[in-house]
Amino acid sequence: MREALFVKQNAAKWEQFENMQSNSPDELADRFISITDDLAYAKTFYPKSRTTAYLNGLAARLHQSIYRNKREKGGRFITFWKYELPLLFKQHEKQLLYALLFFLTFCVMGALSARYDDTFVRLILGDSYVNMTNENIQNGDPFGVYKQADPFEMFFFIAINNIWVSFLAFTLGIIFSVGTLYVLVRNGIMLGSFQYYFFSKGLGWDSVLVIWIHGTLEISAIVIAGAAGLVMGNSFLFPKTYKRMVAFKQGAKDGLKMIIGLIPVFVAAAFLEGFVTRHTGMPLWVSCSILAGSLAFISWYVVIYPNRLHLSSKLTKLHHGTEGRI
How far is CA 209 from CA 54, 205, 215, 281, in A? Predict the structure, then answer.
């Protein structure tokens, strides 16, 4: 894009940011993000121009405004969870969809492989796990594996393992997204064969009511971690109008924020697995309530709320733009 066209498209916004005062930390943060995006583009394509110098000065003033604002300094944690992370989910909704579809595809492949190959479940889950579960089924306690360890110890090690898997899914995205896809394939096949195993034993719905108490949050978080890896990997493969390294750094930053945002989800999933799933005889309504609540939270926070927030942001910008023209 030629510099004159770039300036023409954004001049009104820059003038508005420069002249319109605001004490809102959220508004200041939105302006700063917008200006730094424009500044990064200008530095890439017009590094020695007056436009770049102007944007650099405007970004510096906005930065100072943000850190002079005590409310923003005190509420950074809240801002991240309330606005920044949900908007990242909206911004990278395609990667989230691709990760989900890829994961579900290999779940189905894992289930079909287990159905048509008697040895497949043992290959994926291991002989020791299958033998132990068969013994538990014979003893009338098919989900006894969740009762063997101390609840706190189980919670701690599961939380650490889940967080490790999420970071692995993210960091392997650096291998042109292929590493992330491998993690999704592996976990998808494992889940599909695991779930089919219980259905083949006539315990399918029982397993759903028990295992998915923690599995809803855990599997959702793995898919989101996969999306974070795709965000980083695809930013290098498809940099659009930015230089490849500029795009890659932004993709890595966005993906890392998504991973950090998943830590409480993994901790909650580990808590449910360590302290709640072991109560396999709980009333049906309790199990269904936990499942429905977990699914509703993920659907709301990752899909519904980000779309509402995005729509609200667009309407606010439209309103400010109309006021500026008046």
Answer: 59, 6, 10, 10
> Residue 269 and residue 282: Cα distance in Å, rounded?
18
Interior CA angle at 281 toward 277 and 284, to 5°?
90
Grade residue 24 by pLDDT with cuts at 50, 70 and 90: low
Nearest to 33 by CA among 320, 232, 302, 250: 250
190-234 pLDDT per residue, tens: 999 999 999 999 999 999 999 999 999 999 999 999 999 999 999
What are the boundaries of each domain within the chain? 3-74, 85-311
Helix (H, G, I), strand (E, B) or coil at 60: helix
Give the Cα separation of 192 and 180 in Å (integer).
18
Distance CA 57, CA 163 (A): 40
For the chain, report the end-to-end CA distance as a whole number of angstroms: 29
Does pTM top 0.85 for this prediction? no
Look at residues 135, 281, 298, 146 and name the one whose alpha carbon lies nearest to residue 211. 146
Chain position carrying tokens 């009511």: 209
How would you write 256-320 as a 3-class SS string?
HHHHHHHHHHHHHHHHHHHHHCCCCCCCHHHHHHHHHHHHHHHHHHHHHHHHHHHHHHHHHHHHH
Q: How far apart are the C-alpha atoms of 253 and 241, rounded to whole Å? A: 18
Tell me 206's DSSP state: H
What residues have CB less than 8 Å from 8, skipping those under 6 apart? none
Asked if residues 60 and 54 have their Cβ atoms less than 8 Å apart, the reply is: no
Q: For residues 142 and 211, what is the distance between their CA atoms, to the nearest angstrom?
A: 11
223 sits in which H/E element: helix 204-237
Do the Cβ atoms of 142 and 203 come closer than 8 Å?
yes
Cα atoms in the 13 Å half-sphere on the side-chain side of 233 = 22
Structure tokens at 26: 């959220």
Phi then psi dihedrals of residue 175, to 5 deg:
-85, 60
